[in-house]
């Protein structure tokens, strides 16, 4: 009853038991046994839910017995259980400083196909050395000269290399590993649980005290570079790859806008809102934002049409992320009807829609300073914050978004009475407006291009910009929050199309494809044996 309590909820329960005295236990209020009364007190919350207790004879109650007392058909099979510690001892032969002088004699170890079982006996090393043409030549020269060689020595029919380690006063001998055993030795020093998949330098420093072959460090480096576990779990210690590709500055207002949701807030506001839909014009930096109760496709399309298009006009291009509120049939049909080219950014790469993302980080602190937490009226403070932003000078353009959008200065509370212009003809205002707007736009364009160039230089400094090809195998950085012990990269994936810095990758198992940014990719290196 204790085990099932959380699954029962408030439903009535019928109990079928082969213990006949239990038939009336849920109906009685008092028993002569103190132990039973304590048991009933413990389960007093469940007892009212018991509608009936049905008695069934033991010989007819085999279904419960089959689950609680299963028969053991094969006693010998039950006795031959292998514990996890026994299995690990069968799979792994632990390396040590003298592991080349040991050989496994366990019959089970010899029969297992586990890649973690190694045979580094001196007998095997000697035989492998004799099969290696380069080592065979060195052995023959030493035996032919019949004198002590300063670089090599043969002991117990095994060829050793004489080396002097850094900070050592005497020379030492290490085994000269033949070509056929080199990868196996690296696997022992890198893949084995006692090696723990450490990096190139640590692995090489450990190996060079016991073994040698020409180009050993380079081969260790190539092996670890192609290690799938290291590629998926290691922390990336360098800047994420991919240079900055600034969006080309538009020629005028509403040529390119970006749209994104901010939220959700922890709870609904007093007016019932939980999200903010933000639209930013790339040319003027003018912002339109509106609080919304949800972020469904219908709500998004309704706001976009009523609060933006009907007030400012139809944009030529629209940038959004791949959220379901933007990536749906309704938005697809709406943009097609309006003639707006809808551009969707790479998956989990908000930098592709950086303008609106940057504004989201700007207005959030200002909104926090104005709203009353007790009244929970953050949406009432949104309009003043947006107005203050639009009427302030933007650091990139050198003008306020209001000026570039409407061609005039905003009237602020402390402003003096504005000057009155007189025009001889009605269309003189339009001509002067065009003249001033051209001056504004030319200056804003120069300011913006200058800031873009500076940002690109800072961003690209000491950062790689790899180029991948179609059919390349890559790992993809796991997005969002993950557990401490979970892999950082998943895959491998196959690149099926490219438009640098964006690539479309396909999962080799599920065949699901996604569009991602180059900064989230890592090339899969093939291991050549």
Automatic annotation (TrEMBL):
Q: Which residues form the signal peptide?
A: none
Q: Which PANTHER family does the record match to this protein?
A: INTEGRASE CATALYTIC DOMAIN-CONTAINING PROTEIN (PTHR37984:SF15), PROTEIN CBG26694 (PTHR37984)
Domain Integrase catalytic spans what residues? 249-409
In which organism is this protein found? Answer: Rotaria sordida
Is Nuclease set as a keyword in this record?
yes
Gene Ontology molecular function terms on file: endonuclease activity; hydrolase activity; nucleic acid binding; RNA-directed DNA polymerase activity
Q: Which GO terms describe its biological process?
A: DNA integration
Q: What is this protein called?
A: Integrase catalytic domain-containing protein
InterPro entries named among the record's database cross-references: Integrase_cat-core, Integrase_H2C2, Retrovirus_Pol_polyprotein, RNaseH-like_sf, RNaseH_sf, RT_RNaseH
Q: Keyword annotations for this protein? A: Endonuclease, Hydrolase, Nuclease, Nucleotidyltransferase, RNA-directed DNA polymerase, Transferase
